[in-house]
Design goal:
Strand 2 and strand 3 form a beta hairpin. This protein folds into two domains: about 70 residues, Double Stranded RNA Binding Domain (2-Layer Sandwich); about 80 residues, Arc Repressor Mutant, subunit A (Orthogonal Bundle), CATH 1.10.10. By secondary structure, it is α/β, with parallel strands linked by helices. The longest helix has 15 residues. About 30% of the residues lie in helices and about 15% in strands. A four-stranded mixed β-sheet has the order 3-2-1-4, sandwiched between helices. Strands 5-6 form a two-stranded parallel ribbon.
Length: about 190
């Protein structure tokens, strides 16, 4: 783990989460406000488990992670500097997200698509076909789209940076308007 990111020794534990097998499946979550709206995040000792795109209110953000809440503990401190980095991102700051991801439940194909998507530079775009070709499945553009539709880590895995083969805005779980806003936010930083 990289120092300074949200996975670290928790104040209520005697040792690091990574060294305590019984706590590997314990989930933590928090909900916080950003310039774009309310965001919910959940994580475990494995890494970030879920992040929502901004919602109009706290309840809507909570609804997106409701399935996790019965076994999750509210704890903002667990996420360290991830929250201010996300808030900075939505203010238009250039922010990196090298945080570990909890990929339990995802397929190898999804993991490969998400890993390559994370490598798309800030303010740039790639096509579904480009990702398919890069991961060794040049005819799997639609499968890439399905993998990105299941992305549990928007912004950290910046699926908004993936566009149609002709550069058009296609496919985004929170709507194309949000995709446009995120791309415009990144473009405004680059043009400064």
């Amino acid at each position: 783990m990289r120092t300074g990111h949200f996975i670290r020794k928790h104040p209520r534990q005697n040792s690091s989460y990574l060294g305590v097998i019984k706590d590997l499946h314990l989930l933590y979550y928090t909900i916080f406000n950003t310039e774009f709206g309310w965001v919910a995040i959940a994580g475990s000792a494995e890494g970030l488990s879920r992040i929502t795109l901004p919602q109009t209110n706290r309840e809507k953000a909570s609804d997106y992670i409701a399935g996790l809440l019965p076994q999750a503990v509210a704890d903002r401190s667990f996420f360290g500097n991830l929250i201010p980095r996300l808030q900075g991102y939505f203010k238009g700051e250039r922010v990196d997200f090298p945080d570990a991801l909890d990929l339990r439940g995802c397929t190898t194909f999804q993991g490969n698509v998400w890993a390559l998507t994370r490598a798309i530079p800030y303010g740039e775009t790639r096509t579904y076909g480009w990702i398919a070709k890069e991961i060794g499945f040049p005819r799997a553009g639609r499968a890439v789209g399905r993998a990105l539709a299941r992305n549990r880590f928007p912004i950290v895995v910046p699926c908004h940076r993936v566009v149609g083969g002709d550069g058009s805005m296609v496919g985004f779980s929170n709507g194309l308007e949000m995709k446009r806003k995120l791309l415009a936010l990144e473009a405004s930083f680059i043009s400064i």
